[in-house]
Amino acid sequence: MRGQRISVRNVADLARAGFEIARQPVTKVDFEVHHAAARHGYLRELVSTDSENTVFLETLCSATNGAGVVIGTRTRKPLDGTEVVERVDGQQPAERPEQNDGGWVFHQTTSPNPTFIYESAQTFEGLIAIDPAAREVCEWHGLAVRDLIREISDAAASLIDAPLLSLQSPAQLPTLVKTRNHDLRTRKEVASPCASLAVRFAIALRDASAAARFELADRFRELCEKHGYSFWLADTRPGHRQGNWFEVYHADGEFSPLYKGDLRSRQRIGTVLPVTFVGPARIGSTNAIASFLQRYPQVGVVGCAATTLSDVAFVHLQLAIHGVAADRLNRILGKLLGESTTPARPHKLLRELFKRLGLPPDPDGPSPSVQDPTGDYQTFTGPAFAYRPYQMPDCVAVWVSWEIARQQRGLTAPLDCLYRALAQVAPRVSPDTPGSAGDLATVEYLICRATEQSVVRGKAKLAVPKSVLRQFSSGGGELPASKLCASLEEAWKAHVDQSGVDGVGELTVAWRESWLGHWTYS
pLDDT-derived band of residue 51, with 50, 70 and 90 as boundaries? Predict the structure, then answer.
């Protein structure tokens, strides 16, 4: 029966690919990858430029540990109904970066996979917390995140043969619910820290049966029980939007021997290396990358942001390489990328980089796969940044969502108006801190995705200094965070109206993700 389902699915995928090719005979996706130091206002400056080259149709943004990534795509339009397609073989050299404002920018083109199905309606979404109490990232955290990504991607590819739709780390944990002596009349909800050492993921369920969900849930529950992680599943009951979670396993704070510190270093990481892998979206690509990294015991993953945009897979990882300083890493990396013979393929480029850093693969590690689903992927690496602990206990998460008709300005109108609204509702963060909330808020995570209705929908999580809440704490039973979000939403809508840009709507602001518009994406 399983073979029969796969056969039927392959026919359906082939029919879908034929339809896409018939509708637009030859497509290529132009994209940009920006690796930069995480700082206030970088994304706003990037998308607010007048240059047409910086307008993104679909966008992914993530920032943590002192480093950030901004990825944007634009589907190339065929000229006169046709387009010359560059055939790229396995010898494609690595992309040389363009230096820009303290970071590196990569411009490239790739082919999408029209058979990839982004099934947002039928997904298995989970959240696994590794060490929620951690205030800085240690070397063992990187190994734990790396191994967890490998387990998640392997479950999607090997257990149920399904696409891994998204990965995000760090991530915000579910809202804390407190009661006095278990009396529901005293129930109080408190926002969790803006981000924690956790991995959030979503897997598309081609087989949307209860058996498939139980199979995945049991595997992750057993994994969390083994290593001492907490595990939540997205609440799929009617009326429960994305951002509502159901706790499956609560850890008691005891980690497995593999991560207790006697076997793994508790030393704080010193350097983060951003690496982005890009290629046609397909099952097993993330698993192949994670499996390769597991062969190197000194390489951990301390942050990730992965999704598909325009049927192209973007897998962004922050690597922490034990004992290697940022300046040495950048010297070696600059020389490597300056050579015309350096390959772009993930395994080949990383293998050469690790070799020059003196990191041999573990002979007892996972064996390389015979079939490499990333054999035609491109790799964009560097520069390395000095690690900076995130100050999430001092920030409150503010979730925003919007909808905008496809237009040349892209993200410019909604994002610029949002920052203007932040500056208006909180012109001064605190007496001791100069600057407004618009100057100090950080876009920690953002996703924009285009729909077939010529509409681009977006969702973002902002890290706003908690001191802003003092201005909204006077009187009444409403929480200061709720007052802040209500004022921000009203001001945001007013600035959009004043901007004169048509097609912007469905603006929502909330301190809980589940209170956003029902159509938002993960």
Answer: low
